[in-house]
Amino acid sequence: MVDLQGQYSKISNEIDEAVLSTIRSGSFINGPSVLSFKKSLEDFLSVEHVIPCANGTDALQIALMALELKPGDEVIVPSFTYVATAEVISLLGLIPIMAEVDENTFNLTAANIRPLITDNTRAVVPVHLYGQSADMEPILELAKEHHLFVIEDNAQAIGATYRFSNGVEMKTGTIGHIGTTSFFPSKNLGCYGDGGALMTRDSSLASKIQMIANHGQIKKYHHEVTGVNSRLDTIQAAILDVKLRYLGEYIASRNTMASFYDNALNGIQELEIPMRAPYSDHVFHQYTLKVKNGQRDKLKAYLEELSIPSMVYYPIPLYRQNAFKKYVASDFHLSITEKLCQSVLSLPIHTEADYDEMAFISDSVKRFFKSL
After folding, report:
1. Which of 10, 60, 258, 330 has the fewest CB atoms within 10 Å, i.e. is most exposed?
2. Which domain holds residue 131?
């Protein structure tokens, strides 16, 4: 699904030097590369505060802890997303409230959030799924109306830009009260292990986040709150600082692949290609088709026979996972989410666009539908 070796080969000299410099320095925990990457990412995102941490799931948990939510508080999340979004909510004794998503963008909408708001609702977590922003302006307006916190799960959309109706543009992850992201190797900006970060424009929140991520301490051995141990490894920070310089190029390459797929597959009646929302650009962490008429699994098996990888993100709604069934009635059902879980299929997309590879994949998809 991604060509990490091909990506590495193009910048191997820079990566190798960054890693070796860290090893030679002996500064393996909170070394200079962590601060350097933090500042580089702040500049890239035009945000005042980036707090690196160990992984994207930790980032979500720390965000919730920093907002001082209490057990029993409700947090609205999309029903169609990776488990981590709701996992940390449950872990902290909060209640995840599953919301329907938009059928075309796959993202949470203000219209779907509004009916779920109760006196116990404290926050909402829009997930910018597959690399495209949720429509944040109406979500922010709704959150302000009901005094809700907004935590952006930006693990799949770093580098995407959201456009407000007045023309103002902001990077995803910097729009709500707190943004979170992951640097898992397959992400658009990925390290060679685990890594994550939180973003905020609020200095008070930034200090609290930093304290929580560092055992609840500001000064060594003086612990103000119960925190966690969540640090971005210095070697991973050094790698990310190099790769961040290429993120614009990586996004452009992914869009090249996406446009190729669009042109090749747009005429197939049994498929829907990804929608581009007018308020957001798309960084294509995934290129996700909707396969009609129950043919998704057959297409996936056909591609597998040709050694073409594909993935289903995600096959099971959150509310049907055993971990979350306790939060919903036994007959709880969201029709769009159910439909998406049965129809989505993601094709390979990455930074090393190759014409022959893209042609082989798209031609194979077309042959499958011609054979029906």
Report:
1. 330
2. 4-244
pLDDT, tens only, 180-229:
999 999 999 999 999 999 999 999 999 999 999 999 998 899 999 999 99
Nearest residue to 156 (alpha-carbon basis) of 202, 105, 192, 206: 105
Claim to verify: residue 188 and residue 85 sit in the same structural domain: yes
| Token representation of residue 266 | 């747009």
Q: The domain spanning residue 97 has which CATH number? A: 3.40.640.10
Which stretches does DSSP call E strand in 206-299? 217-219, 222-223, 271-272, 287-291
* Residues 254 and 196 grouped into a single domain: no
Q: Mention every residue, 6+ apart, whose C-beta is less than 8 A from residue 252.
A: none
| Number of alpha helices (DSSP H) and beta strands (DSSP E) in the chain | 12, 14
Full strand arrangement of the beta sheet holding 271-272: 271-272, 287-291, 344-347
Question: Is 190 within 8 Å of 310 (Cβ atoms)?
Answer: no
The total number of structural domains that make up the chain: 2
Q: Same domain for 118 and 133?
A: yes
Q: Quick check: 126 and 78 in contact, CB under 8 A?
A: yes
Bond from prior residue into 192 cis (ω within 30 degrees of 0): no
